[in-house]
Amino acid sequence: MLKRRWPAVYALAAAGVLALTALPVASATSVGTEAATVTDIPVRGTFTYPHFGKFDGETIVGAVHGVRRIPGATAVYYSVATEPGSGQALRSGFAFQPSMSPFKVLDASQMTIVDAVGLTAYRPLFIKGEGGLVSAPAGEEFPAGTLVGVYAVLPELPAGVTSVDLVLEWGAVVSDLPVEDGPLLPASATTWGPVSDGWPALPDAQRIAAADPAASTFELTSRVGDLEESTETDTTPEEVSVSLSADFFFSPGTWDLSGKGRARVLEVADELVAANVTHATVVGHTDSVPDKRIGNDELSQRRARTVADVLRERAPSLDLKVEGRGEAEPVAPNSTDAGKKKNRRVTVTYEVSK
């Protein structure tokens, strides 16, 4: 499946998570008691977020009830409420951020499943021109403290995924949610309403099949740096790229490794051996300041060749492609010293073993 890149920027700490004892489940089970059908409300995690991102205003509280595998997709069940005793009724415009195309304005679409191990993010499925496969609240209003059920249908998770993180409205995060099988039952006749009246009704199989999962699936990039700012490692499901800071590894205008630089390149070589890497690409880069002796292209080529030679000391069978691209591929503006420093680098890139 073709995947698009999605920034791996989401908070890992679930700030402001609501204590289970504060969750207004009692209010939920007391609403509509004459028609109540749900007697067991699983709670897999809780969250809070400020109404419309205003931290000095009302607060939305809620719970995640399940991340469930269904045929051809993944259903997320969660609920939201205004705080008991607040006097603030729950309305769609109060609880959810306005959605943008391809979703409709009132779609409860601001959610993302994050598979941090597989470095993949999943957003709700949608059908062009029809909106998202999510709850689409409109007009209803519920008293303060009423726990109102909401759903979203997202692409099917790989079979090996057993837990995920969930990013909700205004950056609320619920971590380490178990992935379970089958829809929650009994189902309600509506796509959102009091949890006590049944779980939100999911789209039928035909609508799920009409959505394109590739359009809602995104690769994440994991970026890790060291304290000395000597290396930065970007990892995607397909490849790993280790960026070596030229300022740490080389003296200005030279291609001879420093003592610390050589030791760090040998560490990178050990990492390649441990990962059973057989092919890698080493590419040198410079900033935009011209090298008056040999030129930027040649300088970047020589630095890449130096790194490749040291890599081969630990991994003599490693097949290396060595290139110098000078200033042609900046990763930051050359208008600042900080930007120039980022651009002076040598990258070692290799595919992830499947």
TrEMBL record:
Keywords tagged on the record: Membrane, Signal
The answer to whether the entry has keyword Zinc-finger is: no
Q: Quick check: keyword Signal in the entry?
A: yes
Matching Gene3D superfamilies, A to Z?
A: OmpA-like domain
- A Pfam cross-reference name: OmpA
Give coiled-coil spans as residue ranges: none
| OmpA-like domain mapped to chain residues | 237-354
Q: Which residues, if any, are the signal sequence?
A: 1-28
- Region Disordered: list its residue ranges: 321-354
Specify the protein name.
OmpA family protein
